[in-house]
Amino acid sequence: MRKAMVAGNWKMNGSLVSNELLVNTILKGADKLLTDSVDVVLCPPNVYLSQICELLKNSSVMCGVQNISLHQSDGAHTGEVNARMMKEFGTKYVIVGHSERRANQFESDADVLSKIKHALQYQMIPIFCVGETLDQRESGRIEVVISDQVLSVLDGLTEKEASEIVVAYEPVWAIGTGLTASPDQAQEVHRYIRSLFSSRYGQELAEKVRILYGGSVNAANASDLFKMKDIDGGLVGGASLKADEFLGICRSSTNLVVSD
Fold first, then answer.
1. Residues designated catalytic
2. Which residue ranges are tagged as binding site for substrate?
3. CATH code linked to domain 4-256
């Protein structure tokens, strides 16, 4: 069975006061979820990591981070934070390769691979993001783009390492726009991503890899998306800043039943 997962990416949002209210409300709602069937993760900005990890202590909700440095070793890297430092707070997940970082910080596929390996070295689970732009979709290049992004990472991983990552398909044209891929559109790409793992490592491993959908997920569309065979949950942006919306998405994910 693949366990469902919902990860909240807060991006550059939050305050000490609003964070506490949001997390405490989520925790109250999470107590009523079937937490044995869904992993719930919150990824705040680094400056709030200590606060959020403390609030989540002794709960079923886990803490993640939005990025780690390319620099593995400590030293003269002003403004950088590496995986070792993040791990000290008790973080378990890290978002890697998000389209906003690929576009705005010019992160390459090679950078993404390096960060994934760095995260795995410190027993952090990478949430590896891939996705196409609207131009790439309309020009019929979806599979070429997705294949390039996925295989550039798999080429640098061992089979064991590949089995430990989570993938998030985030159509770039749907992020923060209010647009959402239809369930069938999302399923088609999720199925293709799983086929890439299968071709490289075999069907058994591919069926164990969790693939999340990450394009404007909200409480209204989550249920239809999560009914798809190869969609194992969501990487949630704006909706993760609203407790009711986020909990609604989490509730939708508990209906997932995916066999090996």
1. 98, 170
2. 9-11, 176, 216, 237-238
3. 3.20.20.70
